[in-house]
Write a sequence for this structure.
């Protein structure tokens, strides 16, 4: 087990080979904002909110997908990083139709919370306002693409934990959508087990349980790392 | 001592922000002791004065009438506060922007045509003496310069009161940590 020594915000820290900068930072009590990351799921660096500055790199690096290395010097908080993170959140709001006031996840939403953390009071960018569908064909759940931020947590939990791989991503850029069974209506999916893990991991109100009034969707997630570890031990 | 002039304006919103303003309860007296409320849906003055110090603007800019009013209000006010989510993000009034890009005709067809059976005096929907929709609903800062943003649907009474006190002292209000869109 190789241990690397690095500095995070000027303080010396140690991380094991293969650990990410985000993991080591959080173990040391340094908070880096994230959206697509979720403990228990693989990291994909989709949202870029966790970007950090690493000495020697002119680019910002996603801390969730950057492995620690010997002598690394990481900065997790700066004016530049805050500006980038605010713009990322603004772009997420501008890209689809997020109406917090009438959302099932109002007050339980990670996008809303990160916007508040960053002191976002309005959207300077022009909003896209795309016409997006709501698929309510599933008996118990529904997806409102207006509220989706393409974090792909649903795709990953369905594949990595449930093993069904009902969810995937279709299209690119602004046209990217999460889809069930190659784009079939969710209710007609032959692979969906109806486990509801995608509902539990969705950071916004995009995937939700039917029949929930505004602001009442509260999710529970702590069981994910447990399930993941268990399934790995079983298959090993 | 000249008391600052305070005004409030109601564009395309549900009036919930004004209700939340009333929710500051007895602290309304503190505000009225320190400022004159010269124009508002809550008072009877029909003309927006020329020299307002602080104006709270509730609602999004949806119609030609909203546009005319907010432009006039900007010209006549020193500090303009975008008051609540509709003013900041267009919120619910902006949901029409996702229907045919916000175009008015499909919107009217949906609101006044689909499933409507009532016809009053031979008219299905009024076209005279009513404001006309802009091509899309806009947040206030896309139309005029905004000095202060107060998020919330509605902003809480405490946020409103603290912001008003700061503004009447001529200071820029500091929002409490965690102030967010939505309720």
């Amino acid at each position: 087990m190789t241990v690397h020594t690095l500095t995070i915000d000027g303080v010396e820290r140690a991380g094991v080979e293969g650990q990410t900068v985000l993991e080591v930072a959080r173990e040391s009590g340094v908070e880096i904002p994230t959206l697509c990351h979720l403990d228990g799921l693989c990291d994909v660096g989709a949202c870029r909110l966790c970007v950090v500055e690493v000495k020697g790199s002119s680019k910002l690096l996603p801390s969730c997908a950057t492995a620690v290395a010997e002598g690394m010097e990481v900065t997790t908080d700066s004016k530049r990083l805050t500006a980038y993170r605010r713009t990322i959140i603004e772009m997420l709001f501008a890209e689809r139709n997020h109406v917090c006031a009438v959302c099932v996840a109002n007050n339980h939403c990670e996008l809303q919370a990160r916007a508040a953390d960053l002191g976002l009071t309005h959207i300077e960018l022009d909003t896209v306002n795309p016409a997006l569908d709501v698929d309510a064909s599933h008996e118990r759940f529904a997806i409102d693409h207006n509220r989706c931020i393409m974090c792909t947590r649903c795709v990953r939990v369905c594949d990595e934990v449930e093993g069904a791989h009902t969810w995937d991503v279709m299209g690119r850029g602004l046209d990217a959508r999460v889809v069930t069974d190659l784009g079939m209506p969710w209710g007609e999916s032959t692979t969906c087990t109806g486990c509801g893990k995608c509902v539990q991991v969705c950071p916004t109100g995009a995937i939700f349980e039917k029949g929930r009034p505004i602001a009442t969707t509260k999710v529970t997630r702590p069981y994910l790392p447990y399930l993941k570890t268990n399934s790995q031990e079983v298959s090993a | 001592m000249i008391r600052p002039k305070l005004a409030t304006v109601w564009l395309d919103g549900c009036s919930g922000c004004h209700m939340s303003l009333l929710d500051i309860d007895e602290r309304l007296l503190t505000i009225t002791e320190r400022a004159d409320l010269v124009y508002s849906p809550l008072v009877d003055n029909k003309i927006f004065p020329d020299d307002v110090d602080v104006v709270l603007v509730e609602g999004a800019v949806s119609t030609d009438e909203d546009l005319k009013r907010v432009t006039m209000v900007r010209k006549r006010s020193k500090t303009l506060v975008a008051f609540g989510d509709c003013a900041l993000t267009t919120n619910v009034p902006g949901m029409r922007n996702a229907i045919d890009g916000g175009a008015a005709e499909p919107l009217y067809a949906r609101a006044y045509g689909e499933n409507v059976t009532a016809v009053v005096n031979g008219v299905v929907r009024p076209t005279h003496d009513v404001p006309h929709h802009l091509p899309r609903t806009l947040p206030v800062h896309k139309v005029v310069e905004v000095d202060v943003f107060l998020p919330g649907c509605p902003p809480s009474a405490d946020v409103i009161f603290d912001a008003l006190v700061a503004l009447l002292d001529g200071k820029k209000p500091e929002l409490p940590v965690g102030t967010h869109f939505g309720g």
Observations:
- Residues 64-75 of chain B form the longest helix (12 residues).
- The interface with chain A takes residues 82, 85, 88-92, 94-95, 97-102, 136, 139, 141-142, 146, 149-151, 153, 175, 177-183 of chain B (CB under 8 Å).
